[in-house]
Amino acid sequence: MKHSTPEFAAIAERGTVLRCQVGSEVHGIAVPGHGDRDEIGMCIEPPEYVIGLRSFEQYLYRTQPEGSRSGPGDLDVTVYSLRKWTRLALAGNPTVLIPLFVPDTAIVRITDVGRELRAHADRFVSRTAGRRFLGYLRDQRDRLLGRRGGRHTNRPELVDRYGFDVKFAAHLVRLGIQGVELLETGRLTLPMREPWRTWLRDLRQGRHSRDEVLDVAADYEQRLVDLIARSDLPDQADHAWADAWLVRVYRETWRSWEQQGASR
After folding, report:
1. This prediction's pTM
2. Most distant CA atoms of the chain, gap in Å
3. Is residue 141 within 8 Å of residue 45, measured between CB atoms?
4. Per-residue burial over 238-256, b = 16 or more CB atoms within 10 Å of its CB, e = otherwise
5. What InterPro entries has UniProt attached to this entry (predicted)?
6. Helices assigned H by DSSP within the chain
7. Which residues contact residue 162 at a Cβ distance below 8 angstroms, ignoring those fewer than 6 apart?
8. 148-196, pLDDT tens digit by residue?
């Protein structure tokens, strides 16, 4: 797979500024013994991959072969180019925003650049992010109901056992809860607050019905719609700050690498 080459692994290893655990365990809703480990990172790529002809967007590592499902004990890692991650975060992508808010205990590796990024999490919070949470919520609800083409789940064993994919349903509800929190407070609490943390864990063990899931999702969908309209958050993330910050940290990092090379 293109993104899993030794070349890309070396870029990620040298340039990583932040790498942390994400996924259900960080949210506090994992079912013990049933989950894999997901990590997201960001790295600064060498200049030849930014201003030269080569390109680097992300490095992927999986303990399972491509196309195979991850299971308990497996590791899935995605290390984005810091530039790509920033574009996704500015657009409000719910998954890539998570590293800004994880607790210190979830951090695998961090540099001063990574610390500076997390200190400026507010630059990435906007009503645009709220719209992305809302869009993802609606998409997952429609897939749960079979309104969109393709299968909504690759977990037929959960459908056989509970009548619907409870893990997929938990992601649906979580998006609503966290989207509302982000718009109300400008931050995400990780692990999630009670009582929702326990409620979602119970859902993943079949202790709530699909109708309950849809009722909760509908409530949070409406709350998101209302908050997007009246929130005091800016409509867009701070693109100007992010652009200037990227230029500075890339230049400083490349200069540091040159000095290290010259001193050898």
Report:
1. 0.93
2. 65
3. no
4. beeebeebeeebbeebbee
5. RlaP
6. 6-15, 24-27, 82-90, 94-97, 112-119, 127-144, 156-162, 166-185, 196-204, 210-230, 239-262
7. 206
8. 655 555 678 888 888 899 999 999 999 999 999 999 999 999 999 999 9
What does the alpha-carbon distance between residue 255 and residue 191 come to, in Å, rounded to a whole number? 38
CATH of 1-124+238-264, one of 3.30.70, 2.60.40, 3.30.460, 1.20.58: 3.30.460
Q: Measured on CA atoms in the order 135, 138, 144, 149, is the torsion positive or negative?
A: negative
Q: Domain boundaries in the chain?
A: 1-124+238-264, 125-233
DSSP per-residue codes, 196-241: HHHHHHHHHTT-S-HHHHHHHHHHHHHHHHHHHHH-SS-SS--HHH
79 strand-pairing partners: 41, 59
Please say whether the beta carbons of 127 and 224 come within 8 A.
no
The C-alpha atoms of residue 102 and residue 86 are separated, in whole angstroms, by 17
Q: Which amino acid is at 172?
A: L
Q: Which long-range contacts (CB under 8 A, 24 or more apart) does 227-234 make?
A: 227/130, 227/180, 227/183, 227/184, 228/127, 228/130, 228/131, 228/134, 228/183, 231/127, 231/130, 231/183, 231/184, 233/125, 233/126, 233/127, 233/130, 233/183, 233/186, 234/126, 234/127
